[in-house]
Specification:
Structural class: alpha+beta
Shape: elongated
Distance between the termini: 36 Å
Number of domains: 2
Strand content: 15-25%
Radius of gyration: 23 Å
CATH topology of the largest domain: Aminopeptidase
Largest sheet: 4 strands, antiparallel
Low-confidence stretches: none
Strand order of the largest sheet: 6-7-5-8
Number of helices: 8
Length: about 300
């Protein structure tokens, strides 16, 4: 802990929000203030892997309410949208050989590296082609393609006979998942068309894991306007309404006719060892959530 910040993986995402949720309700109960409505607190697994085994499973099990607030660490902003998210992998095979006779093999690393370069070009092309001012105002880009893993080879003295990369791509509500996938597959096909080995040994493209459709919540609904009013009174400033660059479990709310949004503490460097949360903002989030529970549930 240093300079008003708590550092460590998970400090912001998602321990800070969970604590704010818990202590918001606990504080009201300690003061003898019992909400007239039912307040459900959920701490779930798997949000980082798609959420279907956590939040969605709870909703299917009947744990539903009139509204859903998820305290993700988005800098005391009210988040009402996120892009669609998909994961995919590309597999390439080569031809193994002893390193002393590497000229007799086909190195899968080099073949996949060409596909990597083309996908990075596609990322820039998509950033120029697919633009949404609401998303760009929040994170500077409307959509992203990130290659998160690149695995290849068995050891240093053998020509790599196989290589694989895994990537995450986001797409806007104005797009369709089918058109986005077509862009990825066409980019890979362009590389294949220029390489005799890949023509004879086509790469495999697999879509797996995360499958989040784009989510947009109307910020003019009474729930959000009421929350905005309460938050403004507690914080002494009006929280910005913004879009997220990440997929969120809030998207499951509309599946069950539940309006939803995100509001949580300030933090940074998420998903890294130096992740941090601003401790004052955790207290601010707690106060806002407590005040809104009192308002929404008519204490």
């Amino acid at each position: 802990m240093e300079g008003g910040r708590l550092y460590g993986r998970g400090a912001a995402d998602m321990k800070s929000g969970l604590l704010a949720n818990f202590f918001a309700l606990k504080t009201l109960l300690i003061l003898g203030l019992k909400p007239k409505g039912t307040v459900l607190l959920q701490s779930v697994i798997e949000e980082e892997a798609g959420g279907s085994g956590g939040t969605l499973a709870c909703l299917h099990a009947g744990y539903k309410a009139d509204a859903m607030i998820i305290p993700e660490p988005f800098d005391l902003r009210i988040i009402t949208a996120h892009p669609g998210i998909r994961y995919f992998r590309v597999k390439v095979i080569g031809k193994t050989a002893h390193a002393g006779q590497s000229h007799l093999g086909v190195n899968a690393i080099g073949k996949l590296a060409r596909i990597y370069d083309r996908l990075m070009e596609l990322d820039l092309e998509r950033a120029k082609r697919h633009r949404n001012p609401f998303f760009e105002a929040s994170s500077g880009r409307s959509c992203n393609l990130n290659i998160g893993t690149f695995k290849a080879g068995d050891w240093v003295s053998t020509v790599a006979g196989a290589a694989q990369l895994e990537a995450r791509i986001s797409y806007l509500p104005e797009e369709t998942e089918e058109s986005m996938r077509r862009e990825v597959e066409e980019a890979v096909s362009e590389v294949v068309a220029k390489d005799p080995w890949l023509k004879d040994h086509p790469p495999a493209i697999e879509w797996f894991g995360w499958d989040a459709k784009p989510w947009i919540q109307d910020p003019e609904i009474p729930l959000i306007r009421r929350f905005e009013k309460v938050a403004s009174e507690v914080l002494t400033f009006t929280p910005e309404i913004a879009a997220s660059h990440a997929g969120l479990d809030t998207r499951f709310g509309p599946y069950f006719a539940m309006p939803s949004f995100t509001f949580g503490p300030r933090g940074g460097l998420l998903h890294t060892s130096n992740e941090y949360v601003d401790l004052d903002s955790v207290l601010q989030t707690t106060k806002v959530l407590a005040a809104f529970i009192a308002d929404w549930c008519e204490i």
